[in-house]
Amino acid sequence: MPQKVTAFAPATVGNVAVGFDILGFALDTIGDTVTLHRTEQRGVEISDIRGVVTDLPRGADENTATVGLVQFLADFGLPFGLRVEIDKGIPLGSGMGGSAASAVAAIVAANAFVGGKLLRTEILSYALLGESVASGDVHGDNVTPSLYGGLTLTRSLEPIDVVQIPVPDEICCVLVHPEHRIDTRNARQVIPKDLPLSTFVQQSANLAGFLSGCFMGDTELIRNSLQDLLIEPHRAPLIPGFSQVRQAALSNGALGCSISGAGPSVFAWVKNQADAEAVRDAMRAAFAGASVESSAWISSLNCPGASIVEEG
Amino acid sequence: MPQKVTAFAPATVGNVAVGFDILGFALDTIGDTVTLHRTEQRGVEISDIRGVVTDLPRGADENTATVGLVQFLADFGLPFGLRVEIDKGIPLGSGMGGSAASAVAAIVAANAFVGGKLLRTEILSYALLGESVASGDVHGDNVTPSLYGGLTLTRSLEPIDVVQIPVPDEICCVLVHPEHRIDTRNARQVIPKDLPLSTFVQQSANLAGFLSGCFMGDTELIRNSLQDLLIEPHRAPLIPGFSQVRQAALSNGALGCSISGAGPSVFAWVKNQADAEAVRDAMRAAFAGASVESSAWISSLNCPGASIVEEG
Questions:
Q1: N or C: lower Cβ tally within 10 Å for chain B?
Q2: Binding residues of B for ATP
Q3: B240-254 pLDDT, tens per residue?
């Protein structure tokens, strides 16, 4: 049995314009890292939170990284405790799945203490416990891709039913994170509880077109489908400069551009690496035009999910 | 140039449980046939309506088969008229796309009078003119599969964007038509204009799972996804015995069972031909238990769209 295990879980983009609460994809250039140390003392203790976020709850029942661990230790009746170090690579409240990544990394690391016997769906269940603490709601659009990698459909959580959606290899993602924080709960509150059927129908058509485009490798079908008629109109006003940023992305050849998760980060899909830099620069310039500082990443779309990076 | 052209267009199942107004598939065992005779007298005249329905509007501007023809003749400035015979194989108000099939057959036949130069999307546009007369609304979930065959996604009508969705070869459809007429407009009125976002998210998950199952050839994913949470609860009360019929289908191994279009016909997808007969018999027995007579068909799912059957 290891004494110490470190796991990494990637940042993710949830919703993906057409799949509110069900679609998400992993990024390859940013994420959270969690290290677990086996301790003689029972229970879960957070000893360090470092990186781009440090102001997080320290109680094991409150932190997204540890809530699942507490349940995990209880379920397996393990005769030891865990000391937890969290390295946050994902900005807080960025819409990049930070709480999900910490939760996933923790359980992926914990799995090494039981000989890796957890099924992937079991890891997902434990990680969802942590995510629910953060967002006040349980859905898999960030946890699932952070664990599985690539573009995922979380068809159902009870029972867990996850589908990996193929994406044409050359397509990549530009993600721009403006220095403007949105609380996930607030971002949920701006969405009406009821929405017009006619909007649902159009959004369904785009979801169906988008998925078909992914399966068929049809970039133009993806381009024609990758737009959010349902949620984006309600959340866009929360993000200063959003409409200009989106327009900048599309004018520079992006296949689509929408809000990453609950925002304020904005993602664009682009046909290839060559387009990605122009789109990134145009999006950042548009944010700057709205007096908003930003950071940006370019990522492939078929990148791996969470994994153990060190064990000893 | 031909003197007389006959075309057949198949009956269709619209909505397909998870794709309200956007998904539809063609049946191979039933449809409408339209014969066009070139006449010296200009204009469009209906000379005969026969088959399972005869009580249809006779005015060229009112009948779904001829509305598109009138526009077609005007657009091409053709120096002749058309006399139209309609052979209805599809019961009226059955939810099997009868108005769409007549409209499609008419335009497919008309295309032969201009040397077949119409694009498929142009045929679709003309046929939609007829469909709009019948349903008071324009959507492509019946017209598209009647023209293209197989399972189709009508992602957009402006511009026309149609995607052919593959279906595993062995899957087939059972369609049961109860002797109980529903008016399409009434079936639309029972659906609320606004629906809960939470229901839409679940329905989207099923739509995405269903399409993924079709592309991946994953029968169990299709089974888990093929259920309508959005529309069926509102329309089911219009169909006597529906819940028993659906339960009978599922108990006998159907992958899913829902309302065909606006109803009252009910369709089921089954894994293979061997299951189809048992499911059909169970569904008909359930209708009989609700004192409703019914007819039934078993059809493959990858069957052809409309075509010319005679030209002379």
A1: C
A2: 91-101
A3: 999 999 999 999 999
